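Example 9 (inverse folding). The structure is encoded as follows.
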């Protein structure tokens, strides 16, 4: 069976669904391009100053600064990959997640924030935080944009395992578990078991030039063997007929 067309068709359908979902949040290619065209080009010092001011507004929970103004910092050229030096060191996207500020998270991602960072325990920071701070929509967006959700941390724990742990903690503390259940559903949709990955990788090797060559050799060998068996059968049949005539 030729699996190339099957995979191509499946990948095309997945890409269509992905783009449709991203468009809902203004994260399709055209929307991102339009947003980035509005960002001012400023010096490195100015960029870091804007980022510092944005970080302060995200840390200060009593800040009256509205999200439009926070996003203005980004449009004014804030360094979206700025890391606040004070311990603990945190990126703007991490601060926005901790502030549960979905709009600023989207703006940072649109502006080009790096979404694939890991902590000392090898957790994908933003995947982990979006679960901890009950942001399933952000979790799905990160995955659709390429954030790794199939990693294992130092404790051999994958994101679905951690999400189930968080769900149990919420139950124990009497907290609402709807958001973390949604996170679990999203992770189960996009993550794969080792067995699934192995099977998919195996299928993808079929019909490669090497596989085709090997298959042709095997098919030729089988054909030759079948012909040899037929020849033997004919000879044996003829000999048997001769014996019967005697």
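The amino acid assigned to each position is listed next.
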């Amino acid at each position: 069976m030729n699996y190339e067309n099957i995979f191509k068709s499946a990948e095309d359908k997945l890409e269509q669904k992905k783009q449709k979902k991203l468009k809902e949040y203004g994260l399709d290619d055209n929307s991102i391009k339009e947003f980035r065209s509005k960002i001012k080009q400023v010096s490195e010092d100015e960029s870091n100053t804007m980022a510092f001011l944005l970080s302060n507004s995200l840390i200060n929970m009593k800040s009256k600064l509205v999200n439009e103004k926070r996003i203005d910092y980004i449009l004014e050229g804030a360094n979206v990959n700025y890391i606040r030096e004070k311990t603990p060191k945190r990126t703007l996207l991490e601060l926005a997640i901790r502030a549960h500020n979905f709009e600023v998270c989207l703006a940072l991602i649109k502006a080009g924030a790096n979404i694939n960072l890991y902590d000392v325990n090898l957790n994908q920071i933003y995947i982990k935080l979006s679960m901890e701070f009950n942001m399933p929509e952000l979790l799905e967006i990160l995955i659709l944009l390429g954030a790794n959700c199939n990693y294992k941390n130092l404790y051999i724990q994958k994101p679905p395992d951690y999400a189930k742990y968080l769900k149990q903690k919420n139950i124990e503390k009497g907290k609402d578990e709807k958001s973390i259940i949604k996170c679990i559903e999203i992770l189960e949709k996009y993550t794969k078991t080792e067995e699934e990955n192995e099977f998919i990788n195996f299928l993808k090797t079929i019909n490669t030039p090497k596989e085709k060559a090997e298959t042709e050799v095997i098919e030729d060998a089988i054909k030759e063997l079948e012909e040899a068996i037929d020849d033997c059968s004919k000879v044996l049949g003829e000999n048997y007929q001769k014996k019967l005539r005697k």
